[in-house]
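Entry type: protein chain
Record version: 2
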Amino acid sequence: MVRFGSTVDPGAAPPAAPGPARTAHRVVIVSASMGAGHDGAAAELARRISAAGTEVVRYDLLDLLPARLGRAVCDGYHRLLDHAPWVYQRIYQGAERAGGSGPLARTLLRATENRLLRALPDGTGAVVSTYPGASRILGSLRLDGRLTVPVLTYLTDFSVHPFWVAPGVDTHLAAHAVPAGQARALGARDVRICGPVTGPRFRPGEPAERRAARERFGLPADAPLALLVAGSWGVGSLHEAAAEIRATGAALPVVLCGRNTALAERLRADGIEHAFGWTDDMPGLMHAADVLVQNAGGLTSLEALATGLPVVSYRCIPGHGLTNAAALDEAGVAAWVHAPDELGRTLAAVLDGSLGERQHRAGQALFTPRDGGPEEAIIGACGGAGAGPRRTDGVAVSSRLPAGGGSCAVPRAPHQGRAPSRPVLGLPPAGGGEAAVPVVVPSGGSVVPPGGAAAPGSARRRPAGRPGRVRPVLVMRRFAVTVAVACAVSVGGVGAGFASVHHSAGLLHAIDHHLDPDDFHLHGKGPRP
């Protein structure tokens, strides 16, 4: 059973009375709706773990950010990729040099720690992250002893940015030896090669399925087709890439624009006949195509490999798009085309030559992982979480559930002991706070609150309002965080415009990482040597 959590006031329902203990069997997965890849990996992990009989609770980290900043962070990231990709490249490289992230991101993540900790339900046996920001928060909670159950990170990218490798995370799960090696080089602990997390619908198609898919999407029956994708947002140079694929004569472009409907309309107006918006039949499109051309190296690339479709990286977006293309190329599962004059030769070699055969063998090998599937590692960690109580800040924290199910007993301090100043897993802070209320998602996909009727709309619930008086300290803290972030965003926006006028990308590095005016100069081409 998969449950979607929401953060609400914990006072509504007292914890169950203690009973005979058994090992905890509940996994919490934290992702982030920054595009569709992190959520897609979380959904497939949840499906596999739930199918094995372990309860799963999922959270979107953006819903837990303070002052309702999640949507602003997501929108800012989207706009950066769409309108100022060179700025994102500078930020990505600066964070890489800094070993993770800039001070603004670290401040925001620290402000989220208690909110995420309070959201974890009693009886949690393991916590899994599919987003690097969540890994940073969970690793910090593990390091200072406030979170006493195992934390695992599933690396959704094929390349590993330092932001992914958080101190305190117990296990890192990788799809291939290349990202596993990068994670180890960055200091990751207990790295395991577990293969991609692609859904069961992504499998090699039969000739009849290929014909039916082409007919369903109105595609030519016999022409070689290149499926051009750019994630759920449709960002990057899709217009140029589609025209260049068509000009090679090696394949006919079929462009998937995600939720960017305006781009699909522009492409059709410019003669790219087969341009589609969002579709739920991605396996069907892959069965219809002969090659996938991608620019980000995310989950879609792995889904294509699962269907037996060769993959080519071209006109990659900055940051993770470039590093993922390099890692996929190193692994031998996707050719990286660096320039337009290489595109035709590469497509021909993938479609009709030995390059396509080698990629197919390497891609299929991904799905026979050396260390078993990721769900096995996660369920194993969850099963081992009930070894006994752990003491944190003077509180005995139990990771066992009552025999009848439900939530575990509230951890108790030793006789007349002082309650900790910060929350511990399973123990709400004194005077209120937030806790997780699971929401059951049945096979139909609608949300069913415990004991209630199905509610229409999205399966993931957003944080609900918290009734009752809010503590003044909490109000002041939220106000301070909001002001700080607003100031930082304003400074960043002014800096971006200033840098655009003066052609000085080094200014953005100074703003995001050092706040040091000496890191840039106005009339040069970059930072001072």
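Comment: The CA atoms of residues 169 and 492 lie 31 Å apart.
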